[in-house]
Design brief:
Blueprint lengths: L3 E6 L5 H12 L4 E10 L2 E4 L5 E4 L4 E12 L5 E10 L5 E5 L7 E11 L3 H4 L2
Antiparallel strand pairs: 1-8, 2-5, 2-8, 3-4, 5-6, 6-7
């Protein structure tokens, strides 16, 4: 394992793309998302059949979040995040967050832990 970063994603910024941006800024080629705290304007979660589920806000609370970031073929960070959210009526939903469809409401605090694959630590 490598460094740990605690960071904030700004309002209206996409959750998934925000995590990718943070990894780029910190120089993390690979990372684990260890936790987060915040809410989304609306949430879009993937379904097993390939579709998606829209959870209407405003202020959809993220109850839990986990995931990882890996370098894509072009070297850019690509995040795969999943979580549990609750809508304004207290209904709970879960699944993978869809990139570009999960705008942060006020702020979102996230903890990232750098992962150093064996091939990188040997160099």
């Amino acid at each position: 394992m490598g460094r740990v970063a605690y960071a904030r994603i700004a309002p209206n910024e996409d959750l998934v793309q925000g995590v990718e941006k943070l990894c780029l800024a910190e120089g993390f080629r690979h990372a684990f998302v260890r936790g987060g705290l915040g809410s989304l304007i609306d949430a879009s979660l993937g379904l097993r059949d390939g579709g998606y589920q829209q959870v209407a806000g405003p202020a959809v609370e993220v109850v839990s979040i986990a995931g990882e970031v890996r370098s894509g073929p072009d070297g850019a960070p690509v995040a795969a995040l999943a979580g549990i959210v609750a809508d304004t009526q207290g209904n709970v939903y879960g699944g993978p967050f869809l990139a570009g469809w999960n705008p942060v409401c006020v702020t979102f605090e996230v903890t990232l832990e750098e992962w150093l694959p064996d091939t990188e630590t040997a160099a």
